Each structure stands twice: as structure tokens, then as C-alpha cells.
Amino acid sequence: MTRDAFHHELQELEEAVVLMATLVEAAVANSVQALIQRDVDLAQQVIDGDATVNEHQRTIRNKTFGVMARQAPVARDLRELVTIQLVINELERMGDHAVGVAKNAIRLSKQAPVKAVVDLPEMAKLIRQQVRDAIQAFVDVNIVAAREICMRDDEVDHLYRQTFDELLVCMRNADNVPQATSLLFVAHDLERIGDRVTNICEDVIYMVTGEIEELN
Q: Which secondary-structure segment (H or E) carries 202?
């Protein structure tokens, strides 16, 4: 395989990662929208759509292994292919968290709300932007942006703690415990997506420097 052919395949893999990230970002947005609007059909679409996300992961993984086998890359080229594997694993798990939110949206749609879920849409908005920016940092090979994105995870963590504390107060009324627990799971799923964004940013730094750096 020539260097031009190698870089062409690499570019195709990067484009596939961007497409997979777009699907995951939409799943996160739709799962939270389903929760807020009590839209069972939309929540079910998120759950059903996870199979497509998983299929993208399998396809990208197999193509990456194929390039590794044919090219036997070393140094930066090898790290880039390894990073693609790491990034799609994080994206696949983000998709699982979106499914978690969607399942709780269905569960909560059958009950009167115990608390306005004001902070959850804001958490989802921040996280979606972080996912988008982290993937752009990967495509641009931009470790400065990767470090900056991780710093923004503190905003997500703050909203998570705030939501957690408010829901604990709700639970003082025993009747609210089941619904508040479901909302806690939603908040936790969103917070974990933020953590996986941090992992992608760390992967970008590893790809460039070969060093493992914990950013948050």
C-alpha cells in the first residue's frame, strides 16, 4: 500500500468517525427532548437507533484492523489508528448512555413530574457541544483545543451536583423516590457522557504526543 493510499483510507476512517459522532450527538439530544416533552415515540427511536451506532462501530473497527494488517504502521500512524479505535469505543458507550436516558424518559412519561428538569437540558446542551468539539479536535489533531474542552467539563459536573442535591431533597417525600431516582439516573448518564468526552480528548493528546495524560 502506498502512502497516498494509506492516507486516503485514514481520511475515510476519520469521516466515518465524524458520522458516528453525529449519530451519537443526535441520540443525546433526542433522548433529552423525549424526556422533557414526554415523547415515548422519540425515546423509542433513540433506543432502536442504537443498533445503527453499534453497526458503525463494528464497521470502523474492522476497517481499522484491515489497515493495520496491510500497512503494519508504526509510531504516529499506529497511534492514529489506535486512537480511532479508542474514540469509537467512547462514542458507542455514549450511545448506550443516551439509551439509558431514553428508557427513563419512557418510564417517567407515565407519571406526573415531581420536579422541573431545568438543569438536564442545559447539561445536554453543554455535552453535545463538547462531543462536537472533541471530535473536531481529533480531526484537526489539536491538543490545545482538547485541553480546553476538558476544562469545560467542570460546568457539566457543577450542574450534575446541583441536580443531584435537588433530587435528594425531593426524595424526602417517599412518594417522590421512584421518579427522583429515575431522574438521578438520567443526570448520571449525562455526566458520564461528559467524562467520555474527556477520554476522547486524552486520546487526542496520546495520538499526537504518545504520552498518556489525565486531563480531568
A: helix 177-209
